């Protein structure tokens, strides 16, 4: 790819700001029962859990090596995290499904 378009750069920057878990933190989280307990099931794995595995790959990909599919997933992550953050529950969120779902998407709201 010759270079990023402005839109791709925005998607990557937003993704980098919203995904606040390291690849290792996210991998460790995805291995937990709590991670697997939330989300809409899609053939044995939730959409968020599957996304989390893809996010780990993206976090380990060097800038300049992203495909258009990678940028599309960054935009999906951006949309999901922003929508979910706007729905923050009023109660304690530490062990909430809301937090667990966000963490599957690479964002820990308690960080």
Mean pLDDT, rounded to whole units?
Answer: 95
How many helices? The count is 6
Q: Percent of residues in helical segments?
A: 55-70%
Question: What characterizes the major β-sheet?
Answer: none
Number of strands: 0
Rg (CA only): 14 Å
Provide the β-strand percentage band: under 5%
Order of helices and strands: HHHHHH
Structural class of the secondary elements?
Answer: mainly alpha
Q: What is the overall shape?
A: globular
Distance between the termini: 34 Å
As residue ranges, the low-confidence spans are none
Task: Write a concise keyword list for the protein shown above.
single chain; 111 residues; mainly alpha; 6 helices; globular
In summary, what is this structure?
This protein is mostly helical and 111 residues long. The chain is 58% helix and 0% strand.
Explain what you see:
With 111 residues, the protein is mainly alpha-helical. 58% of the residues lie in helices and 0% in strands. The chain contains six helices and no strands. It has helices at 6-18, 23-30, 33-36, 47-59, 68-85, 97-104. The longest helix has 18 residues, at 68-85. The protein is globular, with a radius of gyration of 14 Å. The N and C termini lie far apart (34 Å). The mean pLDDT is 95.
Write the layout of secondary structure elements.
Elements: H1 6-18, H2 23-30, H3 33-36, H4 47-59, H5 68-85, H6 97-104
Helix pairs in contact: 1-5, 2-4, 4-5, 4-6
